[in-house]
Amino acid sequence: METTKTLQNYLDELSSNSPTPGGGNVSALCGSLAASLGIMVCNLTIGKKKYSDVEMEMISLKEKLELFQKKFIYLANEDNLAFDKVMDAFKLPKESDEEKEKRNQEIEQATIGAAEVPSKVMQTAKELLSLLRVIMEKGNKNSISDAGVAIALIETASKGAYLNVLINCASLNNQIIAQEIKKRADILFNETINECNTLLQNIILSFNK
């Protein structure tokens, strides 16, 4: 996502018949939005007398979240570039056997790259979730619903990235590599989604006490 563009520009591009930005880009954007909400909760906690005992921890968390915010935007752009590489590989000449072989190799390598980017989104989402858990537990209780939305966004980021891993792995000829990538993604997916569900359920229960 190009951050210098307006939100409307982004939505227009997303709605167009261009394949980029697409679902992978949106998944990474969800991660950045989650980090942004986490930063907001930190800001609403820092400086409050009631939360003076966790102020330094919140300041530290805020700094880490700002890095996650930027990393997800970077990965969103990387997702676009990775898909473009796949499309460029498909455009290579295929007249001779040599050209066909080179083209197939380029498509394969580009597709592996296109699967690795959402894998990184999933890993980054899992890492961010551990910070959001602390914010949910120690941050301003008046903003616990905001922390919950951040967690829900991480769940969406992970699910969306997982789908992009799967579709790219399904396109690979080398299914040994595909299964290795998918196996790592399966572990990340299950761990992240299970933790998201637990944290969100805890938030919901807190409103019913």
Task: Describe the structure using short key phrases.
209 residues, mainly alpha, Four Helix Bundle (Hemerythrin (Met), subunit A), 6 helices, 0% strand
Describe this structure in words.
The chain has 209 residues and is mainly alpha-helical. The protein has a single domain (23-206), classed as Four Helix Bundle (Hemerythrin (Met), subunit A) (Up-down Bundle), CATH 1.20.120. It is 81% helix and 0% strand. It has six helices and no strands. It has helices spanning 7-15, 23-45, 55-90, 97-138, 144-171, 175-206. Helix 2 (23-45) packs antiparallel against helix 5. The mean pLDDT is 96.
With helices defined by DSSP (H or I, 4 residues minimum), what is the helix count?
6
Approximately how much helix is present in the residues?
over 70%
> Low-confidence parts, pLDDT < 50 over ≥5 residues?
none
* CATH fold field value: Four Helix Bundle (Hemerythrin (Met), subunit A)
Give the CATH architecture. Up-down Bundle
Secondary structure layout plus pairing:
Blueprint: H1 7-15, H2 23-45, H3 55-90, H4 97-138, H5 144-171, H6 175-206
Summarize the structure.
By secondary structure, the protein is mainly alpha-helical.
